[in-house]
Design goal:
The structure is a single chain. This protein is an alpha/beta fold. The protein has two domains: 15-102, Leucine Dehydrogenase, chain A, domain 1 (Rossmann fold, 3-Layer(aba) Sandwich); 140-263, NAD(P)-binding Rossmann-like Domain (Rossmann fold, 3-Layer(aba) Sandwich). 41% of the residues lie in helices and 15% in strands. The protein has ten helices and eleven strands. The strands form three sheets. The chain has a six-stranded parallel β-sheet with strand order 1-11-8-7-5-6. It has a three-stranded parallel β-sheet with strand order 3-2-4, sandwiched between helices. It has a two-stranded antiparallel sheet with strand order 9-10. α7 (171-180) links the parallel β5 (160-164) and β6 (184-188). α1 (9-28) runs parallel beside α10 (262-285), α6 (140-151) crosses α7 (171-180) and α6 (140-151) crosses α10. It is globular.
């Protein structure tokens, strides 16, 4: 029996419906939700992603300002831009898009984004608040994994989940999110010996290491749910994940596709967060 495919499109559609309701509430208050995306690269894939955010924002009646500072932007210019956006009460969300020019300290820059506007959970303060169980935006891709699991009613409480990957973009924040849902969580990485000994015990496995073919049918137990967050490009130029899906199909009970899985949810989630941040600002002003 083949694994059920956990497609991201229905999840994104549900998030967009929530966004639409929030936009209607904001309009009633005379507020235009607004997100700013700061870009300092000529990377083609980044350009495609930013255009996607802008297009989806327009469809959702959210103002999206793309501030393209060019691939040679100086750290001071980037910092000044972020400080200005942080102080602007009409800007509800800020995204600092990577990659950045060589020599730029990403950590110093994301620290300038206030947690209330930190849509992508990039500021270390956001991660600290998340770890402490305080209100904060988690890294968007990590939250997208939870949104997919919730949409398809995958149980987490009391389950053993293994996250393969320890980045601040997915692995570490996702581990915190799973802990908040009462899962027992193991985090594995490139230095974990005998990876299969860990993944074979898990009912939920998330592959987020950025390595094609990292997990195959020998790494997952029968009836498990496998979430593939990997985005790799094969020799033919096709987008593939970290999971060898063909060998997992007959073992796992559910699997996210690549493309068309978790990545599809991320943009919709960022726009929903823009409206949430805007609603919070309305409450603060009242």
């Amino acid at each position: 029996m083949s694994a059920k495919m956990l497609h991201g499109l229905p999840v994104a559609r549900a998030l967009r419906e929530r966004t639409g309701r929030n936009v209607a509430r904001l309009r009633a208050e005379g507020v235009e939700p607004r997100v700013a995306v700061v870009v300092a690269t000529d990377n083609e894939s980044t350009g495609w992603y930013v255009r996607s955010i802008a297009q989806q924002a327009a469809k959702a009646s959210i103002r999206c300002d793309v501030l393209d500072l060019g691939p040679h932007a100086e750290p001071g210019e980037l910092a000044q831009t972020l400080r200005g956006l942080a102080a602007d009460e009409e800007v509800h969300g800020i995204i600092l898009q990577t990659p950045l020019p060589a020599g730029v300290d990403v950590g110093e820059l994301v620290a300038l984004i206030p947690p209330v506007k930190d849509l992508d959970g990039a500021n270390p303060l956001s991660f600290g608040r998340l770890s402490a169980g305080l209100p904060a935006f988690a890294a968007a891709t990590a939250q997208a994994v939870i949104e997919v699991l919730d949409h398809y009613e995958v149980p987490l409480s009391g389950e053993h989940a293994v996250v393969v990957g320890r980045s601040m973009v997915v692995g570490k924040p996702l581990a915190q999110l799973l802990l908040h849902r009462d899962a027992t969580v193991s985090v594995c990485h490139s230095q974990t010996p005998q990876l299969a000994e860990h993944t074979l015990r898990a009912s939920v496995v998330v592959a987020a290491a950025g390595r094609a073919g990292l997990l195959d049918g020998g790494n997952v137990r029968s009836g498990s749910v496998v979430v593939d967050v990997g985005t790799n490009v094969d020799r033919q130029g096709n987008l593939i994940g970290d999971v060898e899906s063909s060998s997992v199909q007959g073992i796992a009970r559910a699997l996210t596709p690549v493309p068309g899985g978790v990545g599809t949810v991320t943009t919709a989630l960022l726009l929903l967060r823009t409206t949430r941040a805007a609603l919070e600002s309305v409450v603060e002003r009242q």
